[in-house]
C-alpha cells in the first residue's frame, strides 16, 4: 500500500478490525518512511447485483451512491457519518442476503425510507421528496399525514 503522504510503498499495519457490520476490514497503517498514519478499508468485491431503474435500465449497485443520497437527506441534521455508514451497511446486507442478481430501485428506495423514518423525520421527507419526485406542497402534506396521525395517537 502506498502512503498517501510520501508515496512510499513501505508500511506496517498497526490495527485491524471489522467495519461496516462485518462487510469490510478497517486497517490503520503507519508509513515506515514518514511515520504518518492512515486508514485503509478492504471490502468484498462487487457481487454483481444490478439495480433496475424506473426507466428499466440496469446499473450496478453502488453503495457510494446510496451514501451520497443519504448524506444529502441528512444534511444539517443531527445524524453522524457513523450512523449513515451503519444505514448503508444495513441496507447493503439486506440486498446481498435477499437478492441474487437484481433489485428494483423502488425496493431500494423503500428500504432507505423505512430506515430514515425511524431515525429522523426531516431526513425522511427530504429523501422521499427526491425519491418520489414531489411536484408541489400537496405531495409533502400527503407524505407527512401518516406521521402526523401517528404522533397525534401517542
Notes on the structure:
The chain folds into 2 domains: 1-43; 45-153. The protein starts with 10 loop residues before the first strand and ends with a helix. By secondary structure, the protein is an alpha+beta fold. The model has no long low-confidence stretch (mean pLDDT 89). It has a 3-stranded antiparallel β-sheet with strand order 1-2-3, with no helix packed on it. The protein has a 3-stranded mixed β-sheet with strand order 5-4-6. Helix 1 crosses helix 2 (81-98) and helix 3 (105-119) runs antiparallel to helix 4. The chain has helices at residues 63-73, 81-98, 105-119, 121-131, 137-153; strands spanning 11-19, 24-31, 37-43, 50-52, 58-60, 102-104. Strand 1 (11-19) and strand 2 form a beta hairpin. It has 5 helices and 6 strands.
Oligomer: single chain
Unreliable stretches: none
Could you state the order of secondary-structure elements as H and E? EEEEEHHEHHH
Strand order of the largest sheet: 1-2-3
Largest sheet geometry: 3 strands, antiparallel
Amino acid at each position: 500500500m502506498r502512503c498517501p503522504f510520501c508515496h512510499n510503498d513501505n508500511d506496517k499495519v498497526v490495527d485491524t478490525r471489522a467495519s461496516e457490520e462485518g462487510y469490510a476490514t478497517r486497517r490503520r497503517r503507519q508509513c515506515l518512511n514518514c511515520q504518518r498514519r492512515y486508514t485503509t478499508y478492504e471490502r468484498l468485491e462487487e457481487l454483481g447485483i444490478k439495480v433496475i431503474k424506473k426507466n428499466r435500465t440496469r446499473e450496478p449497485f453502488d453503495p457510494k451512491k446510496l451514501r451520497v443520497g443519504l448524506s444529502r437527506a441528512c444534511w444539517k441534521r443531527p445524524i453522524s457519518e457513523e450512523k449513515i455508514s451503519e444505514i448503508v451497511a444495513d441496507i447493503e446486507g439486506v440486498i446481498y442476503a435477499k437478492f441474487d442478481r437484481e433489485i428494483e430501485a423502488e425496493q431500494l428506495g423503500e428500504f432507505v425510507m423505512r430506515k430514515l423514518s425511524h431515525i429522523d423525520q426531516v431526513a425522511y421527507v427530504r429523501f422521499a421528496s427526491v425519491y418520489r419526485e414531489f411536484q408541489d406542497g400537496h405531495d409533502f402534506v400527503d407524505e407527512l399525514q401518516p406521521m402526523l396521525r401517528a404522533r397525534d395517537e401517542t
